[in-house]
Amino acid sequence: MKNPAPSARRSAVHLLDQVLGEGRLMSDLISSGALDRLSPADRARAQRLANDTLRGIDRADRLLKRHLRKPPPLPVFNILRLGTVELCMGGDAHGVVNDMVAIAGSHPRYNNLKGLINAVLRKIAADGVRSWNDLRLPRLRSWLRDPLVQAWGAQPMLEMEKAHFAGAPLDITPKANAALWAEKLNATLLPTGTLRLADPGQVSALPGFDTGDWWVQDAAAALPVKVLNPQPGEKILDVCAAPGGKTLQLAAAGADVTALDISARRMERVQENLTRTGLSATCLVGDALEHSGGPYDAILLDAPCSATGTIRRHPDLPFAKDGSEFGELIELQSAMIDHALTLLKPGGRLIFCTCSLLPDEGECQVDEALARHEGLIVDRDALNLPGVDPAWVTPEGGLRLRPDYWAEKGGMDGFFIASLRR
Ligand SMILES: C[S@@+](CC[C@H](N)C(=O)[O-])C[C@H]1O[C@@H](n2cnc3c(N)ncnc32)[C@H](O)[C@@H]1O
Fold first, then answer.
1. Contact 225, 241 (CB under 8 A)
2. What spacing in Å lies between the alpha carbon of 244 and ligand 1's midpoint?
3. At what angle do helices 8-22 and 40-65 cross, to 10 degrees?
4. pLDDT at 3
5. Ligand 1 atom closest to residue 354's alpha carbon, by position in its atom list
6. pLDDT tops 70 at residue 166
7. Ligand 1 near 261 CB (within 6 A)
8. At a CB cut-off of 8 Å and minimum separation 6, what does 352 contact?
9. Ligand 1 touching residue 86 (CB < 6 A)
């Protein structure tokens, strides 16, 4: 059979099949070309549909259960889930149901289930939509929820789940002139200097993208470089640099930046971003544990981690992962801290950060590094920044950020940041 033409909905279902069926991460699927046959606008729509479905899957499954005697095969279930979420978020019933039936109809193994899809989605359109908002707030899977409840408590967990379900606005770091770009983009200027757009549309079509006047970066992700406080001419190593949001901040401050990452493919993204923004850094591909350059005035270690702080933006993560690789990541983070400390000038500063909600990848790493390295200190003053709430500073002297912080402003990614000096 000839392959059916790609569409945003069809591609979104295909993304769901691979995330939920094969444990693939959406970012990996997209960077290996999953949406390349779509126009930029459809690419953005497919991604949005898949993300909305993953955020609402808990509710969709509860609604669908009322109309299904047993769970259908995964590709059919995903068609129903996407259709349900679209209907319940205000999608046009006629268009959604017809498209979902057509997607099943072109599936070689499941085209005999077109009637089921038609009947179930019509019932959802008729009476499911009203109950959507009364359904329980979607919860994280227990492999991740349990340790987070243990770390932060049951009520904060619910607040974080509320933030995950709400998704994330578009945050932008301007190269300079934040107030001017806030006006041009009709954005809110957040207290920490990030610009926030609630409903941006296609990012590459916004003013200032082509001219490289700003880059996309969550408000929390912009803080590690502010904590580092780069000075013009300082020799700074950005040790896990790709895709480069923090490299751009360091370079924009006039520092002499070396950006290093183990992935050649991801390092290409750093180079592309530098070119687009007209900034410069020395780009190296290599293992952070083997780097022997320096000594450096400062090092930014944005270590590989569970990325559990980014679930607002990446709702696929709890479905694609199961936590089994976290132990290895935690060991790698400690080894990276130890090696980075050998590359610093005396009195130099090491900013350790992870986009994780797990204390093992944040607070505990700092405690353990202090125990391993005599003379190492935590610089609390570095956290004294505009817009940073002193209540976010931890007993260890790090900065703990969570998705439920700034809830009224649209939240922020989960992060842990600490400034270490020796
Ligand atoms: C959290 S991401 C960095 C995000 C980046 N700092 C930014 O702001 O755009 C972690 C990065 O660490 C890189 N990485 C993983 N293991 C590494 C290693 N042993 N040496 C250097 N980089 C590594 C990954 O390729 C990934 O790009």
1. no
2. 9
3. 60
4. 64
5. 1
6. yes
7. yes
8. 301, 303, 333, 337, 365, 366, 369, 417, 418, 420
9. no
What average pLDDT does the segment 325-335 reach? Answer: 97
Q: How far apart are CA 323 and CA 142, in angstroms?
A: 11
Q: Alpha-carbon distance 169 to 176, whole Å?
A: 21
Query: 64: CA distance to ligand 1 center in Å?
Result: 40
The minimum-distance atom of ligand 1 relative to the CA of 300 is: 6
The amino acid sitting at 82 is L
From the alpha carbon of 332, which atom of ligand 1 is closest? 19
Question: 202 pLDDT exceeds 90?
Answer: no
Closest CA to 362 of 405, 396, 406, 323: 396
What tokens does 109 get? 């193994």
Question: Helix (H) and strand (E) counts for the chain?
Answer: 16, 12
* Known catalytic residue at 355: yes
Task: State the pLDDT at residue 1.
Answer: 43
Tell whether ligand 1 has an atom less than 6 A from the beta carbon of residue 220. no
CA of 238 to the centre of ligand 1 (A): 9
Residue-range domain boundaries for the chain: 8-134, 169-217, 219-421
CB atoms within 10 A of CB 292: 8
Antiparallel, parallel or unpaired: β 235-238 and 296-302: parallel
Within 8 A by CB and 6+ apart from 30, the residues are 47
CATH class as words, domain 219-421: alpha beta
User: What's the number of CA atoms in the CB half-sphere (13 Å) around residue 278?
Assistant: 10
Kindly state if the Cβ of 224 falls inside 6 Å of ligand 1. no
Which residue puts its alpha carbon closest to atom 2 of ligand 1?
A: 304
What is the fold of 8-134? N-utilizing Substance Protein B Homolog; Chain A (1.10.940)
For residue 151, give Cα distances in angstroms to 145, 146, 418.
Answer: 10, 9, 18
Nearest ligand 1 atom to the CA of 336 is 19
Catalytic residue among 283, 305, 355, 364: 355
Q: Are 28 and 130 in contact (CB under 8 A)?
A: no
- Strand bridging mode 399-401 / 377-378: unpaired
Tokens describing residue 415? 């992060």
pLDDT tens track for 58-114: 999 999 999 999 999 999 999 999 999 999 999 999 999 999 999 999 988 998 999
Is 242 labelled a binding residue?
yes
415 CA to centre of own chain: 11
Its CATH class, for the domain covering 169-217, is alpha beta
What string of DSSP letters covers 216-250?
A: E--TTTTHHHHHH---TT-EEEESS-TT-HHHHHH
